[in-house]
Amino acid sequence: MKSFLDTSVIVAAARTNDGRYQASSALLHACDPNIGACAAHTLAEVYSNLTGMPPPNRFHPQLALKFIVRLRSKLECVALSPDEYLDAAQRIADLGLLGGLIYDALLLACARKVNAERIYTWNVRHFQLVAPDLKDRIIQPPLP
Fold first, then answer.
1. pLDDT at 114 over 90
2. Euclidean distance between CA atoms 103 and 42, whole angstroms
């Protein structure tokens, strides 16, 4: 059974002062590439988030890189082909959705690609809006 972790979960797992840290960190810790996945572009999103936060929460670039390297050992990183990008855009266009929801659609396309049975996010409402057919698979990490 494959689980897919979105960027919001992974960033929360890196920040010990985030209220969602325990749930996110426990979920990430339990993963290995056979049972856990993320989008390949999540690596860049995590780096951007961690190094772009205002002080004192900003990560030093080398610390952010160390965290990303650890991610690679915990999660399968899923990339999309150009056709898969277009398919994701077609899905949200057909739903009449706008703007930044395309990024959620790309993450969900990666989750589809690995046939994830669980898709973990702290942004359930947007994910379910973008992929109503996956509604039952899209959940928050379980709170301790």
1. yes
2. 10
